[in-house]
Model the fold of this input.
Amino acid sequence: MTISSSLNAGVAGLAANASRLATISDNIANSSTTGYKRAETDFHSMVINAGSGSYSAGGVRVTTTRLIDEAGALATTSNSTDLAVRGRGFIPVTTESALGTDNGDDAMYLATTGSFRADEDGILKTEGGLVLMGWPADADGSIPGFARDTADGLEPVQINVNQFAGEPTTTMSLGVNLPATETDNGGSGDTLNLPLEYFDNLGTSQSVGVTFTPTLPATAADPATNSWTMVLTDSAQDDAVVGEYTLVFDDTRASGGTLASVTTTSGGAYDDTSGTFDITVAGGPISINIGAIGDGTGLTQLSDSFAPTAISKDGSPVGNMTSVEIDANGYVLANFDIGITRTVYQIPLVDLPNANGLESLDNQIYQTSNESGSFFLWDAGDGPTGDIVSYALEESATDVAGELTDLIQTQRAYSSNAKVIQTVDEMLQETTNIKR
Done:
């Protein structure tokens, strides 16, 4: 009967608008919740064919969707481990309660933002108990090749604030001027000494001793030899000789003072193109750059005093970790007071075909489902996921003005449906009165 269908349609309208009111209430209540994704209620009509000459109201049904792919604005913070995703990707996290269970790999959940801080164990987590996850780096700072379609390689990001680090020396560059007058008849023949500090594999300061001995002319009538013998010793091996080379300098107008030839007596072979050779100290090889043939930026021989002009090396002594930062590519960087930075973790970004198909959980985190599709772990800044912004949090996606407008419309629609029920009740009362 059409009048009964009108009553059912009115009741369905009340229920539908009550559902819409619930989503609006949730959105407004979370208007200040970082990372909150607003929910939306959609109405769908239902049609009942009752035959010709009459019409039966089918009413309305609702579906509620959380718009997880809708991003909020980013707000700047002062914490280096406040993270937000600028793009469609998700940060992998787990829960604090999952860490307390020993049942295999930690469950992976997804988030778009989070204020992570180190706890008493150095684990980066939020006040709500979300733990940041990433791939651990090797000792040299490189990230191993983890599988991208599984979360098995992910671990809780743990920062050891008492961590020490040192960098061994692997390369040196020598810029030294040798006095040209020492290789002629008036030269003294004295050996010139140049100690060079380097750091071994344990961060201990060691020394490579470099001596330059001029080759004097055989007779007083002979011209300057422009030749020197360079010997390198290692203090970590009781000053054992680790390299010996004969240096001959050019005295022509075009290239006067530059290296003309380098002959290897012991140690690594000299490369006249790159200007380098390797010596093996106690901790391993060190590449020494003295300049290429004809290049005036390394060793030179000019009529001036013996003087180091440019000496540089890599490596550093042992230092303490002072701070942690996360860059746009998701690398967790530990900064040390000796001026070095070391990669300790990499945070990937998770991508799925249908973000709105994720299952929503507490604390603005999500779980994969059949509707979301299978996930893939991308490097941040690569692929479709976007990058990671530190010192930032994603604000709520709720537009309060829009929600209040929807609230007025929902109130009017609810009142109208209630009026329909009231009207149907009055009509049924009139029908009842016919009997009287």
